[in-house]
Design brief:
Helices cover 5% and strands 51% of the residues. By secondary structure, it is mainly beta. It has two domains: 5-293, Neuraminidase (6 Propeller), CATH 2.120.10.30; 318-395, Immunoglobulin-like, CATH 2.60.40. The strands form eight sheets. It has a four-stranded antiparallel sheet, with no helix packed on it. Strands 3-4-5-6 form a four-stranded antiparallel sheet, with no helix packed on it. A four-stranded antiparallel sheet has the order 7-8-9-10, with no helix packed on it. A hairpin with a 3-residue loop joins β8 (114-119) and β9 (123-128). It is globular and about 60 Å long.
Length: 396
């Protein structure tokens, strides 16, 4: 809903539910995709997937579709799962993207051919826009965005937590800025916007001039002192972003790249649930964002759509069970699979640091881990072939 501290903060509303392990709490509301019409000043719901929340929207170049992730929770296995979807803006029909399993933070390429996403805060992949075999673009990377010609990407390098660009043909990379998150390449190719978190600063929207290859030209410029998740207007002169205050859990704001005070653009006046993940349409008329849908609310937050059946989970012939969770000592991991392929495993803490790694695990076997782990929350990523599971561990 992928890992440095910033990404953990970004997903705080969802991770709070995860850490509570409460399917009842999660079932009380969902986050869905809404679209705000700038000219008409009206907001309408465009997605509703049963028992899942939708986040991180990105428009197709023709403005007819939105790609996003949908996140659900399996209370029986205490397991969160997610997938990349494409939603028809007119009909509200949402379809899972083949090859987008476990995907987060989807973004549509400007040429309309591919959808890029990261997988649990570590890998950036792309798939054909109609679905297909995923292509690994980079490891140890999150928050990818496309250059205007779709030939390069900008991303956060998890080895340095810096912002970099990469040529997709020869894989050459350029460092843009020392430390940040949520990079977004302007449509005219002249700027990269990002959320800064270098020492002395925290949060806030910044921009930096770049050449056509993504090389930085000069020092970055600060536009706001708070906020995250920037998205560019089609004329590259305005940035929208999500921000919150002590009395406001989150709304969508805009700011000019030439300076000036931010202006609230859209969002629901809900004291308990914020609005996040804004994205401008290519024609500049619409803003897509994630907002809370409350089933017992009679105002604009009540669902306006018939929910699409939640079909995120693929055929499940590969399972991982954890015995002794939470635990004060070790955890017993049981791997059950009908495939003879070996299994790989890694365990990360909430900051994305890998604390345990093992490959060559045989299916239908057991492994004990975690006796030396410090107190806290951990995520177990298990892979077998093209199947992947993520399980949460709690060390008391």
């Amino acid at each position: 809903m992928k890992t440095n501290t910033l990404r953990f903060i970004k997903w705080a509303p969802i991770l709070t539910v995860l850490l509570l392990s409460s399917s009842m709490l999660y079932a009380q509301f969902n986050y869905d995709i809404y679209v705000y019409d700038i000219k008409k000043g009206k907001t309408r719901q465009v997605s509703s997937i049963a028992n899942q929340g939708e986040y991180n929207s990105s428009w197709s170049p023709n403005g007819k579709m939105i790609t996003h992730e949908a996140v659900g929770y399996n209370a029986t296995e205490d397991l969160w799962y997610q997938n990349i979807f494409v939603t028809d803006v007119e009909s509200g029909e949402s379809t899972p993207v083949k090859g987008g399993e476990n995907g987060n933070d989807a973004t549509w390429s400007p040429d309309g051919k591919r959808i890029m996403f990261d997988v649990w805060w570590w890998y950036i992949y792309s798939v054909p826009a109609h679905g297909g075999e995923p292509t690994l673009l980079r490891e140890a990377a999150i928050s990818g965005d496309w250059s205007p010609n779709s030939e390069r990407i900008v991303f956060v390098d998890l080895n340095t937590y810096g912002i970099k660009t990469m040529n997709l043909k020869d894989k050459s990379e350029t460092s843009v800025y020392c430390c940040g998150d949520n990079p977004a390449w302007s449509p005219n190719g002249q700027y990269i916007a990002f959320m800064d978190w270098s020492p002395g600063y925290y949060d806030g929207i910044w921009i930096i001039k770049v050449d056509k290859n993504g090389n930085p030209l000069g020092a970055p410029k600060q536009l706001t002192t708070s906020g995250s998740q920037p998205s560019w207007s089609n004329n590259s002169k305005t940035i929208i972003y999500s921000d919150f205050t002590a009395n406001d859990p989150g709304n969508i704001y805009s700011v000019s790249i030439y300076g000036g005070l931010p202006v609230k653009v859209c969002g629901f006046d809900n004291p308990d649930f914020g609005d996040y993940d804004p994205c401008y349409s290519n024609n500049g008329q619409y803003i897509a964002f994630s907002g809370a849908t409350l089933p017992d609310d009679e105002n604009h937050c009540k669902s306006q759509l018939v929910a699409t059946p939640g079909n995120l989970q693929v055929k499940d012939n590969f399972k991982i069970n954890v015995l002794g969770n939470p635990s004060k000592s070790d955890f017993n991991l049981n791997f059950n699979s009908s495939s003879p392929e070996s299994i790989s495993l890694r365990i990360m803490d909430v900051k994305g640091k890998v604390v345990f790694n093992q490959t060559g695990i045989q299916p239908n076997s057991e492994l004990k881990v975690g006796n030396d782990f410090s107190k806290g929350f951990y995520f177990v990523e298990v892979r077998q072939g093209n199947q992947r599971k993520v399980v949460k561990l709690i060390k008391n």
